[in-house]
Amino acid sequence: MNESIKKIAVLTSGGDAPGMNAAIRAVVRSCAYHNIECVGVYRGYEGLIDGDFITLDARSVKNIINRGGTFLKSARSENFRTVAGRQKAFNNLKSHGINALVTIGGDGTFTGAIVFNDEHNFPIVGVPGTIDNDINGTDFTIGYDTALNTVVEAIDKIRDTANSHNRLFLVEVMGRDAGDIALNAGIGAGAEEILIPEQDMGRDRLLASLKRSKKSGKSSSIVVVAEGDQIGKNILGLADYIRENLEEYEVKVTVLGHIQRGGSPSCFDRVLASRMGVGAVDALLEGNRNVMIGTVHSKIVQVPFVESLKGENNIDLDLIRVADITSV
Ligand SMILES: Nc1ncnc2c1ncn2[C@@H]1O[C@H](COP(=O)(O)OP(=O)(O)OP(=O)(O)O)[C@@H](O)[C@H]1O
Ligand SMILES: O=P(O)(O)OC[C@H]1O[C@](O)(CO)[C@@H](O)[C@@H]1O
Ligand SMILES: [Mg+2]
C-alpha cells in the first residue's frame, strides 16, 4: 500500500455519461473503506482551477447509483488548456493537501491529464466515462450501454411510424468522431444502413442500397447516421439529396441529440462504474499513476493513458459485415 496517498480528489469532465455518479460513489466509498480522505471537485478541470471543492464521505454519495448525469457536474474547460490555468489547478491541489486525482471522462479528459502530469508530476488515474466508447484498452466505457439502449428504444418507436407510413427515416445519433453508437444501435434496431465517421460509404452506394431495399419489398427504412459521419454531416442536406434522387421514398429526419446522454444508468453501467471506481483507488494505493482503468474480457486492467488514446478508427469490421448481412 502506498502510504503517501492520504487524500484523493475526484472529478467528472467532458460530456456527462450515465453511470458517472456510480463511479464517483465507488471512488468515495473505496476511500472511506481504506480510511483515505476524499474531495469532490465540481465542474471538472474548471472547478479544479477555481478551487471548487467539497469534502465527501461514504454518506455523501447515498442514493446516486441510479441517477443519470453527474452530481459533481461537468465542464469543457478552456482554461485548463492554458499553462496558467493548469498552474492554478496544481496550486489548489497542493494547498488542500490532495495527493492524487481520479478523473472520470473521455479521451479529451485523459489528454488533459497527461499534459497536467507532464508539467506537475501529479499522480492521476483515469476512469473512462463517455457514451462514445472511443477509448482504447477497454472493452466498454461507462455510459455507452445506457446510451445504446436509449437509442434503440427511440429507433424502435420511429420504426413503428415509419412502417405505418412506408417512410424512410434518417436518424442522427451522437458520435462526433466515433461510430460505435451508430453501428451497434443500428444493428440492434435493424437499420437498413449505418453511416459512421470511420468509413465513408459514399452517396452513390447509399442510394443503390436504398433502391435495393425498396425493391426487396421492405415497407420502411431506417438509416442511422453518426453525427461525425462524412456524407451525413449535414443530415438535412443528405435527406434532400435522397429526395432528389429516389422519388419512391418519402424521407423524414430525426436528430436524437442530448436525450442520448441522459437517463438512469443500466445495471451494466452501474456495475462497470463501481468496478472501475474501486479499481482507480486500488491503482493509486498500489503506487500506480498515469493509467486508465479498463475492462478487457471482463477483467479490470490498468492501461497507460497514452495507450488509451490510440483508438482512432478502431472499429470492428465484422460488425459492419453483420450489419450488411442482417439488413438484406
Ligand atoms: N490538449 C489538452 N490540454 C489540456 N486540457 C485538455 C486537452 N484536451 C482536452 N483537455 C481538457 O479535457 C476536457 C474534456 O475534454 P473533451 O471536451 O474532449 O471531452 P472528453 O473527455 O473527450 O469527453 P466526451 O468526448 O465524452 O465529451 C476539455 O474541456 C479540456 O479542459
Ligand atoms: O453538446 P456537447 O456537450 O458539446 O457534446 C456533444 C458531443 O459529446 C458527445 O456526446 C460525447 O459526450 C459526442 O458524441 C458529441 O459530439
Ligand atoms: Mg471525447
From TrEMBL:
Cofactor(s) needed for function: Mg(2+)
Regulation: Allosterically activated by ADP and other diphosphonucleosides, and allosterically inhibited by phosphoenolpyruvate.
Record-linked SUPFAM superfamilies: Phosphofructokinase (SSF53784)
Catalytic activity reported: beta-D-fructose 6-phosphate + ATP = beta-D-fructose 1,6-bisphosphate + ADP + H(+)
InterPro entries reported for this sequence: ATP_PFK, ATP_PFK_prok-type, PFKA_ATP_prok, Phosphofructokinase_CS, Phosphofructokinase_dom, PKF_sf
UniProt keyword list: Allosteric enzyme, ATP-binding, Cytoplasm, Glycolysis, Kinase, Magnesium, Metal-binding, Nucleotide-binding, Transferase
Active-site residues annotated for this sequence: D132
Designated name of the protein: ATP-dependent 6-phosphofructokinase
Originating organism: Rasiella rasia
